Amino acid sequence: MNPSRSAILALACAAGFSALLLGACASAPAERYFVLDVAPSNRPALDPAYAGDLSVRVGAIPQSADRPQIVMQRGANELDVREADRWAEPLRGGLERCLVGDLRRALPAAWISSTGPHRDPDPLRLVVEFTGLDAAPDGTVSLRAEWTLATGDGAARRTYRRNLSHKVPGGTIAAIVGAWSDELDELAQEVARSVIARPAAPPLAN
After folding, report:
1. How far apart (Å, rounded) are the C-alpha atoms in residues 99 and 195?
2. Helix H segments across 32-166?
3. Is-contact 149 158, C-beta < 8 A?
4. 34 in Cβ contact with 173 (< 8 Å)
5. pLDDT tens digits along 52-64
6. Which is it for the CA torsion 175, 127, 191, 117, positive or negative?
7. How far apart are CA 173 and CA 103, in angstroms?
8. 72: three-class secondary structure by DSSP
9. Domain-wise residue ranges, the chain
10. Tens digits of per-residue pLDDT, 79-125?
């Protein structure tokens, strides 16, 4: 008994759908995950003697970059959201982790933490806000930030700003993330200088 025409058509459609599904799966690029790096520990300290207490917090970050995918500029008013190139941790957390690590290297005798506890019940408070985290089509990678330093009661509050920019040969995602990591280290150096320049707090009683 020959199979009916409708049965043959159904089998053909099912086979075609399966082929399309397999083709779509095969063409989807594998996801890659990236993290920002803390500067190598063998770099020299900025001030080995500074022993203050510093609380670190990352405030606002660009909304366009605050997502799992790495975002690059495609043009003046267009972004390229890289679906296959992703952050391995929330971007805000990665920025904060690297800042703390880079500051600890720059000021090794200081007590620096984003989570506490602190030696001083009223540590110097650092809040860093990122206003730009860009990777342009011409290979320019840039970071823009401003930060405030204040005591717990808000006294002697000061605000600082820094724009950093580098050209990245090749423009690979790994190179771009590496450039952002280097710029975070440069930012930490500037933050550390602003911390050192403040009047020192009196030592804690034993």
Report:
1. 14
2. 91-106
3. yes
4. yes
5. 999 999 999 999 9
6. negative
7. 25
8. strand
9. 33-197
10. 999 999 999 999 999 999 999 999 999 999 999 999 878 888 888 99
Q: Which of 5, 124, 121 is nearest to 56 (CA)?
A: 124
Candidates 148, 135, 61; CA nearest to 98 is 61
Under the banding of pLDDT at 50, 70 and 90, the label for residue 17 is: very low
Other Cβ atoms within 10 Å of 96 Cβ, number: 19
**Element containing residue 84 per DSSP (H, E):** strand 78-87
In 3D, which of 75, 102, 77, 122 has the Cα closest to residue 164? Answer: 102
43: three-class secondary structure by DSSP:
coil
Classified by CATH at the fold level, domain 33-197 comes out as Rossmann fold (3.40.50)
Q: What percent of the chain has pLDDT over 90?
A: 66
In this prediction the pTM is 0.81
